[in-house]
Amino acid sequence: MYKELAAAKELLQQKVSLLHSLADTDELTGLLNRAALTRHLNQQMGSSRSSENAFALAFLDLDGFKEINDAYGHDVGDKLLRLVAKRMAANLRTHDIVSRFGGDEFVVIMQGNLGDSSAMDSLDRLIHQLSQPFHIGSLSLSISASAGITLYPQTEPIASDQLIRQADQAMYQAKLTGRNRVCMFNLDKELAQKGQHQKATEIQAAIAEHQFELYFQPKVNMRTGQVLGAEALIRWNHPTQGLLGPASFLSDVSESHQGVELGRWVIAAALAQMGSWHDQGRNINVSVNIAGYHLQHSSFVEELALMLAKFPMLRKQQLELEVLETNAINDIDQVSIVLAACKNLGVNISLDDFGTGYSTLGHLKVLTVDVLKIDRSFVKDMLSSQGDLAILKGVISFAQAFECDVIAEGVETLQHGQRLIELGCEMGQGYYIARPMPAVDLSAWTDAWQQSQYENKFKFTARAAGNKG
After folding, report:
1. HSE-up (13 A, CA, CB side) for residue 409
2. pLDDT for 436-463, tens place per residue?
């Protein structure tokens, strides 16, 4: 009786083990199925983060399998998948795990702390084996595979499904770059993109909560002292970090919807401030910086026209669009059309940071701009660098040849201003003249400049101008 019970118990255990095995096995290929893979990953990732449990996870997708399936039928397709599974198992180490994730997708866990190069080498060898012909009856079938790899553990906690998604993303990159190859998931790039997305979301909220503000840096004629206007410069009144300049956040929304929306806000805010000054009896010209991707937005000209229409009391020439030279060159024909449309609206156009890109006389001829703006990098060292001085002379000559005004950024000393005037560039802006300031301070600064500041800062120039008069 005891022997019979023991035999029955053993048979039951065998059946239970078989059922578990069947539940974990892909019916077609005999590999682990998706559910078993997920359970194994969760167990291994949950046990420890030590290097003893490190592994590389690869996601493979067959290239051209659908075409074979469509051409020869599902029976041949199924046989091909079995052969692929067999070849994969034969070309991996005994302690590696291979599973069929679904369709013609496979996931491989390569045990051990392999590192980027070792994991790539192992998968390259496997990919090469899979590219060799498969024989089914009289058919000789050739396919390839694209694979993506990610490594574990990582610097941040991660779930098993996220790990698989990383390898999947890298696999799609392999397909995009030509198929039959392996790509490593770039964790640093992923973290950077997450950071950019988070910053973009934060900027979107900051726009809604009115945390942005325009500062204004005056532009003057350094020979006569005339205040020509001001450049609008965005600032972020961050609730925890204080006042932030554009360099700390604009790159995070470059080429994005938030970047375009922020550009719209700058134009609208500048026009609103110009309208406020107009009501106070002051007509101040303002220039705003326009990114190339915003300028080439399909509705840019239409939106600009609508914003200008809200301030009929302003002369359209009071607004100037400063376009980065390098951005303009990305698509010279399209930019030329957009700028021509903007000029038809009445606004002025300035080519900013002139000399830093690859502009030619032909570009200047196509882009009919009103002002060339010399980049501060050339002004900074003009007193000591013959190369920068030569570039300055060249830009001033270009401006004269194309009947453009020219203005220099980065005027930081009296000597900079005097030398620029001698070269034929009378218009300037920079810290020696004035630092960027809130809108509320500009009127008082203008009055003080006209009353005494200009005479104090440019007294030799001012007296010379007076003697000539």
Report:
1. 20
2. 999 999 999 999 999 999 999 987 654 5
Residue type, 72: Y
Distance of CA 303 to the CA centre of its chain: 24
Q: Judge whether 8 lies within some domain.
A: no
- CA-to-CA distance for 188 and 78, rounded, in angstroms? 39
Asked if residue 436 has a cis previous peptide bond (ω within 30° of 0), the answer is no
Q: Which value, to the nearest 10 degrees, does the dihedral of the CA atoms of residues 66, 69, 70, 71 take?
A: 120
pLDDT in tens, 379-413: 988 888 898 888 888 888 888 888 889 999 999 99
Helix H or strand E segment including 19: helix 2-24
The DSSP secondary-structure symbol of 386 reads H
Q: What is the CATH number of the domain that holds 180?
A: 3.30.70.270
Average pLDDT in the 406-429 region?
94
Q: What Å distances lie between residue 242 and 208, 233, 252, 269, CA to CA?
A: 18, 16, 18, 20
**pLDDT tens-place string over residues 108-121:** 999 887 777 788 89
Within-domain flag for 11 = no
d(C-alpha 76, C-alpha 72), whole Å: 6
Same domain, 236 and 306: yes
Predicted confidence at residue 309, as pLDDT, reads 96
Query: Residue 32 contacts by C-beta under 8 Å, 6 or more apart in sequence?
Result: 24, 25, 26, 40, 97, 98, 99, 100
Query: Are 234 and 266 within 8 A, CB to CB?
Result: yes
Q: Which residues pair with 213 in a beta bridge?
A: 235
* Number of folded domains that form the chain: 2
Range of the structural domain that residue 238 is part of: 195-468
Q: Which amino acid is at 312?
A: P
Tell me: do 105 and 200 sit in the same domain. no
Query: Does residue 17 form part of some domain?
Result: no
Which residues are 139's β-sheet partners?
A: 136
CATH code, 275:
3.20.20.450
Neighbours of 344 (CB within 10 A): 11
Q: Residue 227 has what pLDDT?
A: 97
Verify that 211 and 347 share a domain, yes or no.
yes
What is the structure's pLDDT at 114?
A: 76
Q: Is 10 part of any domain?
A: no
Q: CA angle 184-187-192, nearest 5°?
A: 135
Last residue of a domain, which of 185, 217, 238? 185
> Taking the chain, what is the end-to-end CA distance rounded to the nearest angstrom?
128
According to DSSP H, which parts of 73-114 are helical? 74-90
122 with 246, same domain: the answer is no
Residues 63 and 212 grouped into a single domain: no
C-alpha to C-alpha distances, 122 to 111, 182, 363, nearest whole angstrom = 12, 10, 51
In this structure, the answer to whether residues 98 and 242 fall within a common structural domain is no
The structure's pTM equals: 0.64
